[in-house]
């Protein structure tokens, strides 16, 4: 759930000019007791959930939570399934890596992974050993650790690492993936947020690659890199619906390329924000809701560069909303967007281009 600032609850309004009656005092004290109890319960729940999420990640081999469980998924090995309905913007999991690969290495990849695993405590080695190696099913002996690494590693800032619970999450393309992971440099952990509502029993899916490509292109990449034929809901569409989805995704990718040309001044701010609105509209149609924070943040940058304070504020507010949903309200991205929303002129690109009014977001908050 997106964390919102809790409104402070006030006691009952004083309607008497002479001060509160005994009944009002009683009601106020009951309201206070109730408020205190609710606050304690809320605090307890927050502490418990943080503790639980931490426990889940720190003990590494506990792969369940009140929100999800790891189960066998026909045709996919293991996967993560929602144990109850999950609202958009819920933190599903935070996890520290078993290990990260250092930026520069001298050994062969095979020896490097063997060395990194052997430095782990025994129970963590066992967690690593239990991971699948579907991407390289024929690997044996010394090749096996690298095969597991290739199947399960994920980006962690500038590095790549193994997060054994997140590694159980399968892939979905375009509108099929409903969760996103991001690395937190400050806490050195990866967080996973549900950026769409997820229903009880539904599989939780992330995306292993940029899926704004045609079905054939996506499937070829996934086959080559991960050795599976993607059967997600988008890859399983009828030929007619698949064609329409491909057209939207390819158009979104082409529009993003066009948007990038604003940087070298090939297009102006009005056109750039119009492109962003068009990507947003296609995203609604496709139900591709990922990356919206970054898209709106780009628009805020364009608006700020062109001196358009009102548009910059509107786009930054939208960026804040979507960063909070996909990356967490306490992510650096959400905080940066909030700062721009509060003071658009503080954007480092403020006024760096000619003055013009750019498009406001078509999307509401
Ligand atoms: C990071 S692992 C995911 C967890 C894995 N299913 C397991 O059993 O541990 C990646 C592997 O999961 C399988 N996988 C992931 N997404 C899939 C999908 N959409 N369809 C079929 N297999 C998938 C593939 O075998 C892939 O190589």
From TrEMBL:
Q: Where is the signal peptide?
A: none
A Pfam match is: SET
Domain of life, per lineage: Eukaryota
Question: Does Nucleus count among this protein's keywords?
Answer: no
The protein's matches in Gene3D superfamilies, at most eight in alphabetical order, are given as: SET domain, Tetratricopeptide repeat domain
* Membrane-spanning ranges: 32-53
Query: How is this protein named in the record?
Result: SET domain-containing protein
Q: Which organism is it from?
A: Serendipita indica (strain DSM 11827) (Root endophyte fungus)
UniProt lineage: Eukaryota, Fungi, Dikarya, Basidiomycota, Agaricomycotina
């Amino acid at each position: 759930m997106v964390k919102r600032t809790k409104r402070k609850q006030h006691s009952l309004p004083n309607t008497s000019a002479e001060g509160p009656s005994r009944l009002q005092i009683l009601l106020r004290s009951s309201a206070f007791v109730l408020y205190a109890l609710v606050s304690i319960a809320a605090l307890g729940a927050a502490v418990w959930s943080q503790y639980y999420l931490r426990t889940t990640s720190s003990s590494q081999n506990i792969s369940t939570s009140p929100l999800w469980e790891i189960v066998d998924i026909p045709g996919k090995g293991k996967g993560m399934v929602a144990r109850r309905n999950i609202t958009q913007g819920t933190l599903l999991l935070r996890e520290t890596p078993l290990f990260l690969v250092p930026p520069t290495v001298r050994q062969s990849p095979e020896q490097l992974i063997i060395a990194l695993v052997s430095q782990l405590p025994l129970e963590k080695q066992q967690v690593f050993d239990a991971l699948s190696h579907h991407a390289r099913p024929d690997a044996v002996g010394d090749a096996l650790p690298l095969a597991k690494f290739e199947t399960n590693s994920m980006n962690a800032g500038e590095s790549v690492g193994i997060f054994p619970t997140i590694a159980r999450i399968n892939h979905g393309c375009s509108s099929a993936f409903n969760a996103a992971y991001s690395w937190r440099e400050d806490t050195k952990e990866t967080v996973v947020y549900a950026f769409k509502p997820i229903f009880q029993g539904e599989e939780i899916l992330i995306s292993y690659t940029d899926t704004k490509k045609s079905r054939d292109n996506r499937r070829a990449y996934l086959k080559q890199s991960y050795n599976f034929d993607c059967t997600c809901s988008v890859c399983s569409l009828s030929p007619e619906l698949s064609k329409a989805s491909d057209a939207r995704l390819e158009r979104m990718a082409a529009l993003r390329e066009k948007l990038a040309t604003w940087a070298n001044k090939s297009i102006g701010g009005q056109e750039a924000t119009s492109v962003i609105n068009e990507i947003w509209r296609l995203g609604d149609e496709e139900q591709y809701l990922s990356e919206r924070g970054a898209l709106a943040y780009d628009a805020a940058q364009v608006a700020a560069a062109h001196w358009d304070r009102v548009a910059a504020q509107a786009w930054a507010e939208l960026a804040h909303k979507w960063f909070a949903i996909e990356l967490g309200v306490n992510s650096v991205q959400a905080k940066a967007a909030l700062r721009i929303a509060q003071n658009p002129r503080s954007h480092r690109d403020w006024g760096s281009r000619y003055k013009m009014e750019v498009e406001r977001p078509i999307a509401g908050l």
